[in-house]
Amino acid sequence: MQYISTRGQTAPMQFSDVLLMGLAPDGGLMLPQTLPQIDAATLDKWRTLSYTELAYEIMSLFATDIPSDDLRKIINNTYTVEAFGTTDIIPVTKLTDTLSLLELSNGPTLAFKDVAMRFLGNAFEYVLKRKGERLTIIGATSGDTGSAAEYALRGKENIEVFMMSPHGKMSAFQRAQMYSLDDANIHNIAVEGMFDDCQDIVKALQEDADFKAKYSLGTVNSINWGRILAQIVYYFKGYFAATENNEQKVSFCVPSGNFGNICAGHIAREMGLPIDRLIVATNENDVLNEFFNTGKYTPRTSSETYVTSSPSMDISKASNFERFVYHLLGNDGEKVAQLFNDVRSGKGFDLSDKLNDVQQKFGFVAGKSTHQDRLTTIKAIYEQTNRLIDPHTADGVKVALEVAKAGEKIIVAETALPAKFEETMHEAVGAIELPRPAHTVGLEDKPQFVTVVANDAQAVAKLIETHVSPR
Ligand SMILES: *Cc1c(COP(=O)(O)O)cnc(C)c1O
Questions:
Q1: How far is CA 73 from the centre of its chain?
Q2: Residue 72: helix, strand or coil by DSSP?
Q3: Which residues are near ligand 1 (CB < 6 Å)?
Q4: Cβ of 341: how many Cβ atoms within 10 Å?
Q5: All domains of the chain, ordered by start, with CATH?
Q6: CA nearest ligand 1 atom 14, residue
Q7: 143 Cα nearest atom in ligand 1
Q8: For 398-402, what is the mean pLDDT?
Q9: How far apart are CA 277 and CA 184, in angstroms?
């Protein structure tokens, strides 16, 4: 399989090369040239596979330049009972007649990003070793990406990690999770700004071609293709768990920010998985909700971005969205380049003439949830089902219930566990004790390791120069 860029100006590449890339050289995002089509007979065969077997079947269609045995090893080391706490890896739990939860958050950092990041950590180490290269990972996080990346990459050979987070904008638990790591290859950087400022710094450093080459910069942000690939697997798993045969359809509702998670759902649907609708749930930062309801994409500035009680969805522009737009525009790289150059210069774009395709052909629906909605939903679900859901998952449940059609089965992605967001949970259901996995007990009391820097790419570049020797 060959990969191309959404902006059409990058020569086709193999999986191993794409895996180590951030943005494509032409500023776009990498995608498979064509998507494998999964027929009914194959779905039948896959239905009864274990998670690791299913992951192998799907990933081997995309990672065609990694020998089978090596890929199997990477997958088996990634999706272990030790890391995810269940043999199912990603269990599906029925909540009500309409709703089920896709439990994506049982990994080391209690959020869905572990699922993809652990794969990336192992795949990176493998590919780097094979190529005899090293990598300096730079990343931006509003909480969950950073911790998942750091736990997945700590102690890995030939990898150095510089993770930027918005100073003072994460929960105490999230801070403790990241900043308590003392591995020599992990560097926490708190930037005096918003998440999007962190993301802009990552982009600025990536776009400095000399600096990028000199320090072998790479990224594990949600634009990384390897992450999308790992996420495709659990849409298949969720579908099989919730259905008895391929005649049945289900919808997925995904609490969304950078559009990474649901982008994998979109690709699974394009591969032929019988997904009815893909429901995008946003919080008050509703740039995606607006697009999927109007066809108008209007990125916000960082001063227009709200700090909310579902912080991992506090984004003003959705970095993976370009992948969907590429498919929506019939793989027209030139048009995509034009639209996203406008985005970069602060403008938005209007695809309202394509809204029918967005909603009918691609099955997208969207809704929005507010702080009050989260509280109400957490409380209602707890009272009805005795199950505690985290604020992000609550955004998903709220929107799913709002848009549900009669008889529709909706699987809501559980993107984090409640223990990460104690303050909001207590506001919703009172000061009850939140279940906490044993390995996180006492985390907040550990010493923390973090450097605070100004909102300035050069300040971050200096830190990298201090710790990494140039090529
Ligand atoms: C990252 C994250 C999201 C948003 O996922 P995207 O892939 O950016 O759309 C939602 N919920 C939680 C808990 C997250 O960590």
A1: 23
A2: helix
A3: 111, 113, 144, 222, 255-261, 312-313, 392, 415-416
A4: 12
A5: 83-110+226-424 (3.40.50.1100), 134-215+443-467 (3.40.50.1100)
A6: 312
A7: 15
A8: 98
A9: 45
Q: What is the spatial distance between Cα 102 and Cα 90, in angstroms, rounded to a whole number? A: 7
- Residues in the chain, how many? 471
Q: Closest by alpha carbon to 392, among 308, 467, 454? A: 308
Q: Residues 229-264: pLDDT tens digits? A: 999 999 999 999 999 999 999 999 999 999 999 999
Average pLDDT over residues 294-301: 94
Mean pLDDT of 163-190: 92
Catalytic residues: 113
What does pTM read for this prediction?
A: 0.93
- Rounded CA-CA distance 98/411 in Å is 8
CA 308 to ligand 1 centroid distance, Å:
13
Could you tell me the distance, in angstroms and rounded to a whole number, from the CA of residue 470 to the centre of ligand 1?
A: 34
Determine the distance separating the centroid of ligand 1 and the alpha carbon of 312, expressed in angstroms. 5
Average pLDDT over residues 328-347: 94
How confident is the model over 126-144, as pLDDT tens digits?
Answer: 999 999 999 999 999 877 7
